[in-house]
Amino acid sequence: MQQEPPPHKSRLACPAAFLLARATFSQGGITPPPFTFAPTMPLPPAPTQRATLVSRQAYSQPAHSESPRGGAVEQVRTEPAPAAGLTESSGPVARRKTGGEVISINARVEPSGKPPRPATKTGSRKARKVEGPTKLFVLDTNVLLHDPMCLFRFEEHDIFLPMIVLEELDGHKKGMTEVARNARQTSRTLDALAAEGSDIAKGLMLASTGHTEAGGRLLFQTRPLSGELPMALPQGKADNQILGVVEALRKEMAPREVVLVSKDINMRVKARAMGLSTEDYRNDKTLEDGDLLYSGALALPGDFWTRQSKTVESWQQGSHTYYRISGPIVESLLINQFTYFEAAGEPPLYARVTEIRGKTAVLKTLKDYTHLKNAVWGVTMRNREQNFAMNLLMDPEVDFVTLTGTAGTGKTLMALAAGLTQVLDDRRYTEIIMTRATVSVGEDIGFLPGTEEEKMGPWMGALDDNLEVLAKNDTGAGEWGRAATNELIRSRIKVKSLNFMRGRTFLNKYLIIDEAQNLTPKQMKTLITRAGPGTKIVCMGNLAQIDTPYLTEGSSGLTYAVDRFKGWPHGGHITLARGERSRLADFASEVL
């Protein structure tokens, strides 16, 4: 029976290593722990390098430190301690080179006793590295009335509010309009900031109320500031008083940059004429350029099949064919984005992205609604984009659909045809609810008589026109049959006003929001959040026909919804490219 060796009782089995370690500890002024030897263990070769001195801080730390990202464990190197007058950070110790230069190893050595600042990633919203002095933004009243949360949108920069801005804010707080609500919300925000701060003259920390993305301070005008204004500008006007405050701050704060932020174009023009820095409030704009809006469709390159010939996988499931592709094109794809391949001499491909996993994507072929056998309520699609849109409208897994396009592209007709088919034929939804923003093109004609639906009647001319087109497709029934069909259709379509949508919940409804380009992002959020279980929402609009004042293509609620919902597995968007109303309407959309 073999005898087991005795247990190890030593930390260092090599006498040479023991002597070197004891010498190291003795030079550092530390009493070494007792060591015992294990004579039964073989001795390793003697070390060839000289032992280095360690400081008390390095000795007291563990031999390994965990990576800050939670990844691999890296070994901490111990070096001689720095000379007096230098503070060392936690971790490795600084090493002195010849000539007095100090180099830190995975550490930051500060010339003072303050702890080192953590390195920040440039461009990060939570920890932005400030390069140079921060700016001072002077806000106009219209910015606060437009967005009550604008105080927290300027990151690390400071905000200044002139006294005349507070006076104008107080004058707009009465009423039930959107401007009055924003004025009251801004006043509550200012009151909460003032309650958290102690010295209002030195500024209030914007992050004190929980908005950690704002790293600057809020400054109020606590003393008279007078700047030199041109003689042609009346001194009593509020806009000119704000310009005078900006001019005084520019001289007082030099060389710090003072910027006036206003949504009033004339105000910005006057500020530039005076040589002042001014900017528009752009945080409400989803896109700076309307041409950058997500189109929902992507053309595959001409060599797509050549590159994918070795790696593509395909399989059949029902009436659809699936393709699993890879390559650099996957990075530019989004869920529910349409792809198409059209080349001379090759069969076309029209598909939708259904899955993206790593560097691979799955494409699913579409149902061809351009063929007469797949007509929806007697309507067949006339072009590629209309076929894409109908695949979204008829898919029960897609809860939110946005359609944009010029006049006459068939947005309302397709939405109504898909809705009638799924309400009356498939019984997927109980009824169609249609609404739109009541913004007139010209002068208002006054109050409208009747109930809610009767008041909305003049705004729903598009509904009547498209229902007339859909009723003509029913050629099999006689006059009485068409009348009965129209009565049934009317009973399943409800017209509602936007003014009474707050607090409602729609269950198993097919909701159509027409002329959605005239809605603000807040109104769009109010409508979309009305959806209950089994409800589908279709938003349609033409971004070139915005009638709401102060709304642009970049700040429209339709643009906001398209940008926020792209890539969501249960939402889809398509931009309709070609008008199908008539040759006259198509030509007018291009040249007028």
List its salient traits:
single chain, 592 residues, alpha/beta, Rossmann fold, Elongation Factor Tu (Ef-tu), domain 3, 4 domains, 6-stranded mixed sheet, 16 helices, 22 strands
How is the CATH topology of the largest domain named?
A: Rossmann fold
CATH superfamily of the largest domain: P-loop containing nucleotide triphosphate hydrolases
Structural class determined from secondary elements = alpha/beta
Described by the principal axes of the CA atoms, the overall outline is globular
Total separate domains: 4
The overall pLDDT, averaged over residues, is 77
Radius of gyration: 35 Å
CATH class wording of the largest domain = Alpha Beta
The residue ranges in which pLDDT falls below 50 over 5 or more consecutive positions are 6-41, 51-130
Distance between the termini: 104 Å
Known CATH architecture of the largest domain: 3-Layer(aba) Sandwich
Write the layout of secondary structure elements.
Elements: H1 15-27, H2 56-60, E1 64-65, E2 74-75, E3 95-96, E4 102-103, E5 136-139, H3 141-146, E6 158-161, H4 163-171, H5 178-196, E7 204-205, E8 217-220, H6 238-252, E9 258-261, H7 265-273, E10 277-279, E11 297-299, H8 304-308, E12 313-317, E13 320-326, E14 338-341, E15 349-357, E16 360-365, H9 384-393, E17 400-405, H10 411-425, E18 431-436, H11 452-456, H12 461-472, H13 479-491, E19 493-495, E20 509-514, H14 521-528, E21 536-541, H15 557-565, E22 571-576, H16 583-591
Parallel strand pairs: 5-6, 5-9, 6-8, 9-10, 11-14, 17-21, 17-22, 18-19, 18-20, 20-21
Antiparallel strand pairs: 1-2, 3-4, 7-8, 12-13, 13-16, 14-15, 15-16
Helix pairs in contact: 9-10, 10-12, 14-15
